[in-house]
Automatic annotation (TrEMBL), chains A, B:
It comes from the Bacteria. This is Metal-dependent carboxypeptidase. It comes from Bosea caraganae. CDD domains: M32_Taq. Its cofactor is Zn(2+).
Length: 497, 497
């Protein structure tokens, strides 16, 4: 191994140390920080982003890469590490430091403004902050796109989904947008004929919900020595290497939202906790893009934990946690509720059938906004019109409309499509896993996730970024991503086909 | 104003942004972090310390300082800011970066080892970690001392107490060590003749204790928009500018420990929250050394909140919080308990009469260890012998002996004497404040701390590091520190003199 490779590895070990600090501070901002500290924190975050930017654009990296590329003594992991370092180097050197700093500050301000604006259902209060974030995201996209030969939007997308292209996504999403409205009609008609599914009666105290969530996390194999469960307005999985923290929010009238949220974030966390330990701090040890990441949360939440098998295991645990009684707590009744399809307003509460419609709407809007094809001030109107078109519902206010998600205020432009790419990927992976390991579904029925998680560790989590997305998926499932298994899954679960 | 001064101010604004990040991460390590993240966190902390060291030793600082010193357009605050920057510059440039990094890593490892060793009362398990920290502290002290013309110990002390010298402290502490054993005897004899003071009967649920603590913090004027109250093994005040967080620990059999701990840390927090807002991120805006800091916590806890006036206000609040009944809840009885003197083992639980003995012991030991006049392996034996000599008690194990404090494992060598310097300073300041503002004590009796905190804001908190310690104290109280008022306070409160 050349000195150049070793220097790169040491350098990116330091980058990881800095990123881990940023991850914990970001978690703190969302979970712990008092309001009055926002400005001070924004200064810290901006500085750390600038320092990080300085490290990942260190001019020595280019020289080290060129030397290390000629190193014949490197193994597959080291080679893949070089590939990932070069990818990040190309993108990061596209950005001037003042743009990185301005963006970080604009995001901090806009996140704070969003919290208040969302509570007040006041889009106008957010508008100037969001406009600044959008303007800077557009600049970032253009700067990266120029270097990569991509449109501004594809350049932003590429950060979350390496190799992802909107032309491909357009085709997949247009197909789904054709399929879904009719399919939703059919499912709703079928479900209207099912027996009534009474809701378990609350209240469901936060402490009992938390205890149930922790129990389910433990069943899934979440490692509490390397993470935490807390509360935040917008649930997320974050933190640092060896410190993978998830959050949820509790509603005392409905425990299933927090529970399914916890299962979802646990799916993310299992991926993070299962990354290759020897490569944890190196780019090749990172999770392989956000659609893979979303696939792991949706695999756990949608594929595994809304299966009849899982509800059969979980129903008595729920009963025990809340001390309920009556038919609402029967597994069949609960399962019908957990697979209930509804035209709803809120993405994070959406069922897996309507969810892609929420994503397609956001994807189309953010693509238009980045391309400057639509004024930001029209966002609420466009949002509501597309909700009517795709889902047949109209938000009564912007809190339940375009203010519901933190992604845009926090600079996550190009992220949304990965949710639905993730749903398709989840279906394809879960299907392949169950074929390869017949013990998976019966295991889930007993609350034993070891067969599932073992397969995921070996075929997804433990591989980090060793392979490009298409190759990883082909090795795991036999082919690159298509929508076939996802549609088949929906038809099977919701139409009994 | 010269460009050089502006550049210094901008540069130290960035140093503050980095220090604030470190402060929050340190808080997280003590309050939130899961065990398995310790190594990863240590990497992050070490990196941030190295980055911070790089910033405060930036070679441009020396040039900027030399140019700015000749700037005739600067006001008093700017001049004092230059003085503080030069002080830090002199000290920080004394240390090579690898020593800073090694020390940071050794401290992280030793803090983790201490948590376990303390729980297990196992000094031997801590010994190798602590030896490494001591070795590096000695190196740090020597390197700084060489630059400042001080002994290694005085150089370490100087970081916490600018201008502090062990020769002065030796004199003060020897005097106290002569005074205390006899005084403690006398007080114990007097208290033995007092009527019995039954203890309030528990259990005292953590939630009720927390609510009472929050109520008292609010009465003191703690700003919850710029801070939090949480739980940690060793209570502290930390966090960042505009984000001043305190912690406590709860014992359900005795609420007074957590309550008095909260009041103590609130004293620290009021100082931090009251620093001059316009200078918050500049060295001149920092608190004026640790004995001043300790004076503010002890002023609140010992001078104000163990006064008969405060207990008169607090007794009905305590009764309400825990729903007790009987003579134990009478203000006179509670006050006798809050001024009860005991020969105890634990510093943080010690009363104000015996507390200085705990500090003198630590001061003498750490001075000997830094000077290499005593092997670290003999610490438990020496500790126990001095406890017998100064306090007449012997720890049954090291958990209740030399493992009780985090200071040494976390690299806080030279810090301990500031506690007792702080107690003397607190007495001197409180006495001057009450003379200048007669409404202070009656206010405390009504739970109205505005007269006290208003005076402290104007005479201590709001001045930051504008003046050197002696000048600050002379302006506030009429003279530099001596032990006279402290002794008079003890004689008045405990002997009725």
């Amino acid at each position: 191994m050349t000195a150049a490779y070793s220097q790169l590895a040491a350098h990116f070990g330091k980058v990881a140390a800095l990123s881990n600090a940023v991850g914990i501070l970001q978690w703190d901002s969302d979970v712990m920080m008092p309001k009055g500290a926002a400005e001070t924190r924004a200064e810290s975050m901006a500085l750390l982003h600038v320092l990080r930017h300085g490290m990942v654009t260190d001019p020595r990296i280019g020289d080290w890469l060129d030397t290390a590329d000629g190193d014949t003594g490197l193994g597959d992991w080291e080679r893949a590490n070089l590939r990932e370092i070069r990818r990040s180097w190309t993108v990061e050197t596209a950005l001037p430091a003042d743009l990185v700093e301005a963006s970080s500050k604009a995001i901090s301000a806009s996140e704070m403004a969003w919290r208040q604006a969302r509570a007040d259902a006041d889009f106008k209060a957010l508008l100037p902050y969001l406009a600044e974030v959008l303007k800077l995201q557009r600049e970032i996209g253009r700067a990266k796109g120029e270097k990569l030969g991509l449109s501004a939007y594809d350049a932003l997308l590429n950060d979350y989904e390496p190799g992802g292209r909107s032309a491909k996504i357009d085709a997949l999403f247009d197909d789904l947008a054709d399929f879904l409205p009719g399919f939703i009609e059919e499912v709703l008609a079928v479900q209207a004929r099912r027996p009534a599914s009474p809701a378990p009666e609350g209240p469901f105290p936060v402490e009992a919900q938390r205890a149930l969530g922790l129990q389910m996390m433990a069943a899934l194999g979440y490692d509490f020595e390397r993470g935490r469960l807390d509360i935040s307005t917008h649930p997320f999985c974050g933190g640092a290497d060896s410190d993978v923290r998830i959050t949820t929010r509790y509603d005392e009238t409905d425990f299933s939202r927090a529970l399914m949220g916890v299962l979802h974030e646990t799916g993310h966390a299992l991926y993070e906790q299962g990354r290759p330990q020897a490569w944890l701090s190196q780019p090749v040890g990172h999770a392989r893009g956000m659609s893979l990441h979303e696939s792991q949360s949706l695999l756990v939440e949608m594929q595994a934990c809304r299966s009849r098998e899982f509800i059969g295991f979980a129903a008595p645990k729920m009963l025990e946690a809340f001390g309920g009684s009556g038919p609402a707590w029967q597994a069949d009744v609960l399962w019908r509720r957990y697979t209930q399809v509804q035209r709803g307003l809120i993405r994070v509460d959406a069922d897996e059938v309507t969810y892609p419609a929420h994503v397609i709407l956001r994807y189309r809007i953010e693509k238009a906004l980045i391309a400057d094809e639509m004024p930001l001030s029209e966002l609420p109107g466009v949002w509501n019109a597309q909700m009517r078109e795709l889902l047949g519902v109209t938000p009564p206010d912007d809190r339940l409309g375009c203010l519901q998600d933190i992604h845009w205020p926090s600079g996550g432009w190009g992220y949304f499509p990965t949710y639905t790419l993730g749903a398709m990927t989840a279906a394809q992976i879960f299907d392949a896993a169950c074929r390869a390991e017949p013990e998976i579904l019966p295991g889930i029925g007993r609350g034993d996730f070891k067969p599932l998680v073992g397969w995921l560790r070996a075929n997804i989590h433990g591989l980090g970024s060793l392979y490009e997305t298409d190759e990883l998926l082909t090795r795991a499932t036999g082919r690159p991503l298509d929508a076939g298994v996802f549609k088949a899954h929906l038809k099977r679960r919701y139409m009994g086909e």
